[in-house]
């Protein structure tokens, strides 16, 4: 169990007031199709990474209102007594499909498509967007960091830089984005993630000397531990660390200063002392640009915090949830769209494919039309179908939940990124690495 509370009130009030009005006028039972997409990527970004769909399936398992929830809605006058009765046994019975977790997305990619009645679909809007917008922002930032780090592993250390719930979500999304683990124990417990951690500066400071702190840590954790060496003087700390742990010391961590220059000096000192296999990890407000600048430094791994959990300057993906098709009075499905200035939407259901030339993606193809038109559509031979079925009439496909699904998503991200033009991995600002072509049937 991922959580022991209802997710049904993790929403905005107007979802329930719309439901109340729609139940009264009869439109709540109309079949509808909603779509999650973003109109643009964060400025200069070349791609985004889908994350959070597994958490959505987890959250929908708990999308039921208990007596206290219903009493709250009733006491506040948010919905009528008739709607309270409708909500008593509510469970989502619709169908959800979308991009695989770990897949690349671009402007107007149909990241998620939700089909059901208006009443049940409208209640999901805020929950779906809050999960997808945050998790995808973290995964997208993580992916850029992993590219910048090359073959050196990155670990999440951002829990103290965000709220306690976001810390857990961020740890999971970071792994989808390519990170190898987290310092957050709750996230590791819930999702089966690799977990890291040894000591902070306060552990050194509480002891009478740095040597006493190192002796204590090595005695408790063994010589393969990671010793933090920048509390006082790094050169003295390295000498003491090797004296205490011996040349088989596992790792040292540097958390301040000019990390590249310090890493070079530390590497040379460790080698001189015979600790040639001792690894070096660095932390201290790293982002993808800092990681790229450390490529030539003798660093073995990175711990990333603040910039990871805040999306490295893009804490949301600006995803929206829009109605694209609804049942008319005659029972026939009708495509619908907004025409608002700068906020227009594309009507109809969607299919999504990616085309390739010489093994590299060259375009995203979003095909729009009715259910019958899409069923007849035949993509080009080399086009890859980007959408999977997450839920069928309320039944979730469990292969997209759990720890194995997270590892699969991380692997899928690496494969999908490798199929994009190499410019996708550039940290310079630019256009999306491939164009999105929209075809109306």
From TrEMBL:
CDD domains for the chain: NAPRTase_A
Keyword check for Phosphoprotein: yes
Annotated catalysed reactions: 5-phospho-alpha-D-ribose 1-diphosphate + nicotinate + ATP + H2O = nicotinate beta-D-ribonucleotide + ADP + phosphate + diphosphate
Annotated function: Catalyzes the first step in the biosynthesis of NAD from nicotinic acid, the ATP-dependent synthesis of beta-nicotinate D-ribonucleotide from nicotinate and 5-phospho-D-ribose 1-phosphate.
Alphabetical UniProt keywords: Glycosyltransferase, Ligase, Phosphoprotein, Pyridine nucleotide biosynthesis, Transferase
One Pfam match: NAPRTase_N
GO CC term (a single one): cytosol
Annotated Nicotinate phosphoribosyltransferase N-terminal domain residues: 9-133
Keyword NAD carried by entry: no
Domain Nicotinate/nicotinamide phosphoribosyltransferase span(s) in chain numbering: 154-325
Its EC number(s): 6.3.4.21
Gene3D superfamilies, A to Z: Aldolase class I, nicotinate phosphoribosyltransferase
Record-stated family: Belongs to the NAPRTase family.
PTM note: Transiently phosphorylated on a His residue during the reaction cycle. Phosphorylation strongly increases the affinity for substrates and increases the rate of nicotinate D-ribonucleotide production. Dephosphorylation regenerates the low-affinity form of the enzyme, leading to product release.
GO molecular function: glycosyltransferase activity; nicotinate phosphoribosyltransferase activity
Enzyme class: ligase
Biological process terms in GO annotation: NAD+ biosynthetic process via the salvage pathway
Protein name (Swiss-Prot/TrEMBL): Nicotinate phosphoribosyltransferase
Pathway: Cofactor biosynthesis; NAD(+) biosynthesis; nicotinate D-ribonucleotide from nicotinate: step 1/1
InterPro entries linked: Aldolase_TIM, N/Namide_PRibTrfase, NAPRTase_N, Nic_PRibTrfase-Fam, Nic_PRibTrfase_pncB, Nicotinate_pribotase-like_C
């Amino acid at each position: 169990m991922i959580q022991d509370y209802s997710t049904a009130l993790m929403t905005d009030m107007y979802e329930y007031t719309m439901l109340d009005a729609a139940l009264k006028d009869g439109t709540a039972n109309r079949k509808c199709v909603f779509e999650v997409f973003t109109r643009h990527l964060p400025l200069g970004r070349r791609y985004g990474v889908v994350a959070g769909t597994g958490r959505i399936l987890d959250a929908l398992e708990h999308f039921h209102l208990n007596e206290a929830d219903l009493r709250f809605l009733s006491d506040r006058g948010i919905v009528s007594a008739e709607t309270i009765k409708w909500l008593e046994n509510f469970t989502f019975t619709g169908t959800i499909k979308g991009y695989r977790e770990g897949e690349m997305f671009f402007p107007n990619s149909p990241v998620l498509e939700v089909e059901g009645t208006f009443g049940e679909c409208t209640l999901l809007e805020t929950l779906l967007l809050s999960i997808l917008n945050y998790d995808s922002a973290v995964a997208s930032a993580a992916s850029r960091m992993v590219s910048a780090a090359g073959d050196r592993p990155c670990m999440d250390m951002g829990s103290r830089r965000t709220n306690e719930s976001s810390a857990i979500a961020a740890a999971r999304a970071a792994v989808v984005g390519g990170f190898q683990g987290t310092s957050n124990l709750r996230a590791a417990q819930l999702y089966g993630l690799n977990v890291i951690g040894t000591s902070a500066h306060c552990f050194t400071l509480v002891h009478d000397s740095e040597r006493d702190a190192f002796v204590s840590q090595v005695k408790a954790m063994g010589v393969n531990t990671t010793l933090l060496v920048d509390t006082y003087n790094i050169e003295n700390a390295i000498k003491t660390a090797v004296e205490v742990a011996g040349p088989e010391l596992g790792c040292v961590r540097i958390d301040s200063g000019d990390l590249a220059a310090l890493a070079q000096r530390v590497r040379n000192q460790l080698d001189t002392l015979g600790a040639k296999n001792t690894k070096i990890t660095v932390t201290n407000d790293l982002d993808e640009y800092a990681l790229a600048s450390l490529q030539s430094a003798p660093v073995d791994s990175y711990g990333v915090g603040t910039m990871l959990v805040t999306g490295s300057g893009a804490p949301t993906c600006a995803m929206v949830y829009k109605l694209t098709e609804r049942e008319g009075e005659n029972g026939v499905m009708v495509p619908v769209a907004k025409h608002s200035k700068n906020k227009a939407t594309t009507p109809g259901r969607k299919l999504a494919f990616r085309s390739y030339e010489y093994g590299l993606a060259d375009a995203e193809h979003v095909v729009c039309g009715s259910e019958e038109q899409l069923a007849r559509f035949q993509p080009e031979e080399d086009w890859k179908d980007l959408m999977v079925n997450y839920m069928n009439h309320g039944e979730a496909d469990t292969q997209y939940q759990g720890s194995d699904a997270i590892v699969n998503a991380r692997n899928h991200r690496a494969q999908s990124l490798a199929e994009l033009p190499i410019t996708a991995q550039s940290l310079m600002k630019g256009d999306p690495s491939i164009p999105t072509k929209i075809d109306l049937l």
